[in-house]
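Running this now, will post back.
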Amino acid sequence: DNKIADYAAKGHIVPSRDIIKNANQIDKIKESAKINVAVLDYIEKNIHEGMTTAEIDKIVYDMTTEMGGIPAPLNYEGYPASLCVSINDEVVHGIPNKKRILREGDIVSVDVGAYYKGFHGDCAATYPCGKISPQAQTLIDVTKQSFFEGLRFAKKGYRVSDISHAIQTYVESNGF
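Update: finished.
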């Protein structure tokens, strides 16, 4: 409270009290994130050719609920699934279905969220399905590193545009 008051006294804009989380709330957010990480780790080890995106959805639902969470996307504004899944060059937030079958060489982006004891965690990852092309692997690697390039500018004194510029510069310097 004193730190926030000091910032306000110096003329800084401070967040409203309701968005500031205490240690107990932060622990619940961390628990939600642990559910997501466990789900993504399982998917990474078990993704395979012939699997449908609906099967991935079932894994996400089953694991999230077994760990005490609720899949955050499920029924959000009518969304019918427990995750968003996109294959290759599809735009993010693809809806899983029984007809979408993974093939050798696909790259699969999986976006999950867990609601746990009143708090949300959210994360995404991209995985190869079997053996993928060197270009596809490079894309995954460059995309992952671009996050860290942008993160260097996610601190006081920088703007969102600085983060975006760092990501774009890195990605383009690697041919994407």
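The CA atoms of residues 54 and 97 lie 5 Å apart. More later if anyone needs it.
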